[in-house]
Amino acid sequence: MPLRKTISAIAISLAAVTALSGTAVACMANAPFVVEDVRQADIVIDGVLTGYKVVSPGRPGTLDDYGLLTIRVDEALRGEVSGEVQIYWWNSTFAMPEKVKLGERVLVAAARANHAGLPLRGTSATVYGSRRPDLPQLLQAPCAPAFLLPYTPVAAQNIVTLLDGGTVAPHDYFAAGWLY
Question: In this structure, are residues 83 and 106 in contact, taking their beta carbons and an 8 Å threshold?
């Protein structure tokens, strides 16, 4: 009987933690950022982040939330895009940032909605369907940082090298700071 009570107590505790935790612990472990994911992109942009909006079609702060990024394209490193491009972002860390640093030069990789799939790795390989199939989706492996990088000459050169089929040395792509 004591073993059954212990198991019941553990089960109830786990259920309570899961119910009360919300988005804070949706990723049990973070997955690494892998720059080689850029090879899966349909669109790669060197540009300026000019707009960001969180859209809450359901109850705010839920998995229904997504972001819309607006990027002024200075150069298309892959794909045919120009002017201003809007990109759908469903943040696979299960919570959209309230704001991002606008006016920053960025390197962005995205896949078209009909693309075979986003990068998968880590403890959560959950990727939900796009709520905006009319827009390209920001590349982001589950529980990993998004492919929304601050521009640096090294990062840009590495991305071009990877898109050309080459390899690159390890590099901290977020050393210049996070945009969100």
Answer: no
